[in-house]
Each structure stands twice: as structure tokens, then as C-alpha cells.
Amino acid sequence: MDQVPPSKRSPDKVPPSKPSPDQVPPVHENAVAEDHAEKKSTDESNDRVAALTRVETEKRLALIKAWEESEKTKAENKAYKKLSAIGAQENTQRANVQAQLKQIEEEVEKEKAEKVEKMKNKIAILHQIAEEKRAAVEAKRGEEILKVEEEGAKYRKSGTTPTRYLGCFGC
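^ Remorin C-terminal domain-containing protein, sequence as received from the core. Prediction below:
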């Protein structure tokens, strides 16, 4: 029974008084059996309360463990989702950079091909100019040889010697 402090008691309620030792009723066999039954029921009641307390504690611990596992799973799923997003972003950025690199390589190859073509054209032009100069030199040589042959024929016909004999040696 709850013990209420005297200051909180209502004035109309009077606590039951304890019987004095001379007022105790005589003990009968039925009373002893009732005391034994009360002790047994009190022990069973205490065992039951202890069992209920143990069950409640186990239930509370199971709920805490389930909550903890749920929170861990949430944290793992959140981390996995973020890691997946980071991986996807990395793959996207890597693909962009590789595309840029490929584009740059294509541009460099195109420029290289254009410059190679220009250099080949320059070489062809230089070769053409050299061929033209060679042809001009060959033509001039042919003209000079023809001129010398004509003069030689003229000198033979007239029977005279050329006045510029050995002219190349400064005579």
C-alpha cells in the first residue's frame, strides 16, 4: 500500500491502527494454511513479476537492436548511394575529358595532315622550279653548243682560226 506523508493525508481518512499484541486473534489451522497459501501466491507473484520484467527487458533490448540495425542499414544505404553518385560523376567527367582529348588529337592530326600537305606542296614546287631551272640550263647549253658548232663550221668554211682562242684563261 502507498505510504502517504501526514501533510498530504486528507483529514477524513484515518490510517488503520496496528493491532496490539494482546489484540491478536488466536491462530487456527486454517489461518496457517492461508498464510502458507499467501506465501506461495506471493512467491508465484514475485516469480511472475520477475519473468514479466525479464520479458519486458528482452523486448526492449530486441527493439533497440532492431532500431540499431535499421539505422546502420540506413547509413550504409546512404553511403552506398553517395558513393554510386560519386562514381557516376567520375565516369561522366572522365568520358568528357576523353572526348575532349580525342577531339584535340583529331584536330592535331588534321593540322598535321594539312601541314604535311603544305610541305609536300612546297617540295613539289621546289622540285618544279629546280626542273625548270635545269631545263633552262640544258636549253642554254644546247644553244651554246649549237652556236659553237655553227661558229666552228663557219671557221672551217672560211679557214681562219678563232681570235678568242683559249679566251677562258685570260689571254
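The chain has a mean pLDDT of 83.
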